[in-house]
């Protein structure tokens, strides 16, 4: 059974004294971390803002996805010099129209999609998918953890997440039951900071962890605890925090419990995978009208140092991951239907891979990689950035002779989302991305 991870360790027995003692300990811990003075994840300040009804979903491809085989520069012969065609024993994706395993043409751009992301191709042709073949940042360390931290924090020196800074800086739009959530076992670093955010692993069975206690007994003891005279707790900040926030927390958890399970809508078919189930649950939360603004979902398995494979065969390592990734996103879009006019899905990865394939039929850590944005307000197309895609993938045009240089700075992507999707002010943008000078990427209509 799933549970509210922000409170899961607070209760082991159902005696009133134990519940009170452990809840006070939780509050004291949060106070020491400077978290309780701010709103919890269920922020509900009234605010007539342009972020009303808007949602951002951030999908992180952890491991460093090979962008060069995701969005393929098939018109450049040097691509096939670095990566021989799959028909010649290499990992190069075949040009469009070359038979099984051919790329999916992005007409007029010189690029093609990996055949395994066919579910996204229709979104591109309907102008709802923005493709950024070389997103990233200068100064990549090519370390999974360091570069993930940089992207999720927004800057190497920041210790809180950029999405958490958004939650802290920008008032909630209207009344929100759950303003932000990490879908999965862990709270992404982008959501960590002064605003508490829960992780949700199974919405259909969401509740407080009871560890054998009945729901009725736990609820009764919690309500009895919160019903004590608040005046007696004024000398104890932790006790005061429990009295102030406890009843609200219970009502919010009850609201999430109340949405239950639901079948996907509009004929959407999700992959039978962890990622597919998490995207299905996320669509259900959004449809339920709980006021969700920000959510994160992770999908791993992208560190393809060997046996990366080419073409669309599911047995190929990257092909299988791309099929799961694209199938989950497309089902999510279909499931939400017209609600996608108010939702943006942004995908990211910590870095790309080396341009030249290695001797093990894989690729090693690189720099820039392919990112995507999906949504009704997204301006579809291929975004090569101000510097543009290299005229040819010769060593002279590569960073250190091996890597694709970033042509679109990831913070500009974030800023485009914040300004155009959420409508943040200049001062709010400065609080979320302090010191960054926004060069608009033009990703929205």
TrEMBL record:
Q: Which domain of life is it from?
A: Bacteria
Instruction: Quote the InterPro entries the UniProt record gives.
Output: DUF1501, TAT_signal
In Swiss-Prot or TrEMBL terms, this protein is called DUF1501 domain-containing protein
Q: Which organism does this record belong to? A: Nitrospira lenta
């Amino acid at each position: 059974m799933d549970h509210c991870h922000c409170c899961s360790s607070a209760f082991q027995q159902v005696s009133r004294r134990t519940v009170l003692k452990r809840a006070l300990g939780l509050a004291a811990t949060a106070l020491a971390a400077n978290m309780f003075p701010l709103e919890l994840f269920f922020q509900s300040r009234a605010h007539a803002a342009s972020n009303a009804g808007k949602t951002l979903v951030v999908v992180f491809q952890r491991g460093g996805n090979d962008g060069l085989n995701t969005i393929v520069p098939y018109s450049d012969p040097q691509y096939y010099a670095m990566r021989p065609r799959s028909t010649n024993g290499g990992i190069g994706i075949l040009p469009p129209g070359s038979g099984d395993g051919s790329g999916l043409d992005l007409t007029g751009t010189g690029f093609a999609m990996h055949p395994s992301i066919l579910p996204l191709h229709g979104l591109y042709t309907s102008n709802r998918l923005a493709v950024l073949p070389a997103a990233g940042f200068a100064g990549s360390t090519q370390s999974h953890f360091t570069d993930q931290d940089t992207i999720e924090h927004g800057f190497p020196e920041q210790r809180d997440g950029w999405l958490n800074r958004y939650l802290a800086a920008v008032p909630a739009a209207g009344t929100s039951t759950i303003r932000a959530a990490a879908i999965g076992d862990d709270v992404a670093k982008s959501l960590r900071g002064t605003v508490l955010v829960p992780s949700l692993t199974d919405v259909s069975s969401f509740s407080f962890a009871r560890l054998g206690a009945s729901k009725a007994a736990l609820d009764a003891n919690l309500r009895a605890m919160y019903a004590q005279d608040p005046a007696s707790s004024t000398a104890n900040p932790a006790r005061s925090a429990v009295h102030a926030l406890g009843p609200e927390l219970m009502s919010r958890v009850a609201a999430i419990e109340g949405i239950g399970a639901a079948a996907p809508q509009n004929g959407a078919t999700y992959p039978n995978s962890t990622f597919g189930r998490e995207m299905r649950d996320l669509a259900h939360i959004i449809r339920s009208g709980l006021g969700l603004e920000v959510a994160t979902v992770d999908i791993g398995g992208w560190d393809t140092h060997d046996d990366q494979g080419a073409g669309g065969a599911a047995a190929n390592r990257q092909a299988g991951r791309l099929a799961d990734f694209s199938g989950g996103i497309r089902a999510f879009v279909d499931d939400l239907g017209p609600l996608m006019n108010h939702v943006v899905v942004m995908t990211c990865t910590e870095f790309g891979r080396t341009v030249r394939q290695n001797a093990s039929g894989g690729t090693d850590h690189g720099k820039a990689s392919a990112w995507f944005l999906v949504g009704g307000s997204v301006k579809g197309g291929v975004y090569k950035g101000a510097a543009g895609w290299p005229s040819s993938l010769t060593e002279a045009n590569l960073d250190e002779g091996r890597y694709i240089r970033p042509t679109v700075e990831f913070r500009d992507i974030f800023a485009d989302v914040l300004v155009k999707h959420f409508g943040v002010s200049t001062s709010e943008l400065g609080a979320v991305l302090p010191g960054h000078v926004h060069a608009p990427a033009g990703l929205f209509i």
